[in-house]
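Okay, can you check this protein?
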Amino acid sequence: MGKILIKYEGKKGKAMKKLTITFNAPVTLWFMIIAFGATLAGAITGGRITEAFFMTYRSSMSDPMTYVRFISYIFGHSSWEHFLGNASYLLLLGPMLEEKNGTATMLEVIGLTAIVTAAVNYIFFPGVGLCGASGVVFAFIMLSSLTGFREGELPLTFILVAAIYLGQQVFQGIFINDNVSNMGHIIGGLVGAAMGFYLGKNKRRN
C-alpha cells in the first residue's frame, strides 16, 4: 500500500503534525487511472483510440485484438460524462468491497464481468459495440448489497437493489431506446450477485 506523507505546522507551541495519504484500494485506484488515460486518449483522437483498443465488438477471431478488447473495453468511455458517472460509483463502492473481499477477489469480479459481458455481446449482438465500466459498476452495486450475506438467508437490501437497478434496466431495454447497453448492466449485476452469494457461502463454511 503506497503512502504519501504530508507535514504541516500546528498552532504555536505545538509539534508539527503529520497527515498520511494512503493508496488504500489499489485495484480500484489503478482501474480509475487506466480508465482516465484511456478516456483521455479517446478524446484526443476523436474516438479512434477508443474504437481500436477500448471497445469490444464483432471482429475476426483470428485477430489477437479481439481477445484483448474482451477486457480492455471496460476502460474506454464514450465521453467524460460517461467516465465521471461510472467513476463516482467505482470510487464509492470499490474501496469498501476491496477492503472486505481482498484485491484478488475484486480482480476476479472485474475480469469475470468484462469477459462474460463481452462474450454475450459478441455472440448475440454482432452489430453493437460496447465500451465503459458500467457493467463493472452494476457488479459492484449488487455485490455490495450482499455484504454480510449468510447461507440460507436472502438480504432485503439485495431484493430492493435488484428490483430497483436491474428492474430499471430490463424496463429500459424493452421500452426505451436510449443507446445505453442495458444488457451489459444486467450481466454485470448478475455476475456481482453470483459472486456475492459464492463469497458468502465460502465464508460461512470457513
Residues 121 and 128 are 7 Å apart (CA to CA).
